[in-house]
Specification:
- The protein is mainly α.
- It is 79% helix and 0% strand.
- The protein is built from ten helices and no strands.
- Helix 6 packs antiparallel against helix 7 and helix 9 packs antiparallel against helix 10.
């Protein structure tokens, strides 16, 4: 267990308060050569996700994954980051968006393989999976001809798969409102 030096934490805190993702990315690269790089990268990575600086956040969390490929928090963050980057890529690069969503699926699969420890965790993982299926469904509907949008939306296999994932998440933890609301929304469309 390594402790991040106080002066580095102070610099990181200043960059977080100033909302400077570029500065945080620079600090992450500086930390890479020290034995305390993983805890430093975790702090910086969380801040970058909170800032929605997904390109920088991806770089930081991928460095952590290189050292700890099955780390729970790393895979949760990467699943989210890849999905958000996929949404950003979709308007200009469908292939890249699909690849990013596939990477998100890989991170989710890793979570299913190694981190089914509590009802809350299982619900959160199903929510991540449901979100990816929902993204695929939305992308499929957006790609439909205007006169075929309703038909495409209702006949898509992603519609039922997204419902099933959210429903499983909600059944695991009835307090997981995100899964419950999304399951209800998709069920309404299926009926």
């Amino acid at each position: 267990f390594f402790i991040v030096p106080a002066d580095f934490l102070e610099e990181t805190g200043i960059a977080i308060k100033a909302n400077e993702p570029g500065k945080l990315a620079l600090l992450a690269s500086e930390a890479a050569s020290f034995p305390w790089k993983i805890p430093a990268h975790r702090i910086i990575g969380e801040a970058l996700v909170n800032m929605e600086a997904y390109d920088y956040a991806r770089d930081v969390w991928e460095k952590i994954k290189e050292k700890n490929p099955q780390d729970k928090q790393t895979n949760i963050n990467l699943a989210t980051i890849y999905q958000r980057l996929s949404e950003q890529e979709l308007p200009s690069n469908l292939l890249s968006a699909g690849l990013l969503l596939a990477k998100s699926d890989i991170a989710i699969d890793c979570l299913f393989d190694y981190h089914l420890t509590s009802d809350k965790d299982i619900s959160a993982i199903y929510a991540l999976k449901g979100r990816n299926l929902k993204s695929r469904w939305v992308n499929e509907v957006k790609g439909a001809l205007p006169e075929k949008i309703s038909e495409t939306a209702l006949q898509s296999t992603y519609l039922e798969q997204a419902y099933e994932s959210y429903e499983k998440g909600y059944c695991e933890n009835l307090n997981h409102f995100h899964c419950g609301i999304n399951a209800l929304g998709f069920l309404t469309m299926l009926l």
